[in-house]
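_Full entry_
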Amino acid sequence: MASSSSSPSSSSSSPSSTASRQRHVPLPPDPGDGNSDIAAPVCSVPIHIVTTAAQLPTEFLEPSPERKLVIGFDCEGADLCRSGKLCIMQLAFPDAIYLVDAVEGDEMLMKACKPALESEHITKVIHDCKRDSEALYFQYGIKLNNVADTQIAYSLIEEQEGKMKVPDDYISFVGLLADPRYCGISYQEKEEVRILLRQDPNFWTVRPLSDMMVRTAADDVRFLLHVYHKMMEKLNARSLWYMEVRGALYCRCFCINNNNYADWPALPKIPDCIVTDGIVLEEEILSILDVPPGKMGRVIGRRGSSIMAIKESCNAQIFIGGDKGPPNKVFIIGPVKQVRKAEAILRGRLLDIY
């Protein structure tokens, strides 16, 4: 994972050709709690709508170990998953936000972004990377790598602080921004857009982009760097490794292939400094179980009771493709022994079906 220090300025290498497409969409001057260290750096930055690779910063297009970057990252789309349509990819630098228009720029533009999205030299700060990674992989062949997932980081910090872990208690992005420890802002417009998406699933495919679309897409990444630095101050060495390896496994989660992820980057190794602390950590893995067609409901149980019982008995994360797919598969992420335990219970449930 890249250093937590601020990434270099992007404006110096951002071509002037973007000027005609850039928009300033400021947030309210007080983002919620009157905390000036939030309001000052992120309230108003230029927003560039990108349709060609030449409009992106050189240090992004040409990743280098000498210029490690940390950027906010997100994707928007119509039913964002393998079979949906990725429409916008948001990149937040400290001094600018870039909305990469995958509709107008299409495959050529996304191909130019591939080295950065797969690079170990660019940390992509994102909230819940699973569906974004799936869309990138199946639509553009991009293997998203080196993510700092704020949903994972939030859970790890809660565990560090001694709070009881509750299965399926994942912090939403709106909830994360509302937490005064990280941002303390109200993101009401997000719910407005969710309503629009329910009314028109193709909301993000419309061109030209409306001011609401630009503002909402930008706001989804605008605060990520701020939240990231706040979290990095709290995470200990053990949690940092968990965040790194779980982020890598979450990126793989729905990206099923036939070679057991052999063409993906290697998973992060357990650092020696953690082993010498007297606590030997166990390798973490991703396991995928097949469920016979039509039997997933029995595995999940009435109102999720069966799958919840399994989650409560195992220290592992369990995900199901759901309506977006992939269907008839259960994904288990966690320490080897806990994953094997969850597998055994799930296989037992499957045997009980027959």
Remarks:
- Confidence is low (pLDDT under 50) at residues 1-20, 27-42.
- The CA atoms of residues 72 and 225 lie 6 Å apart.
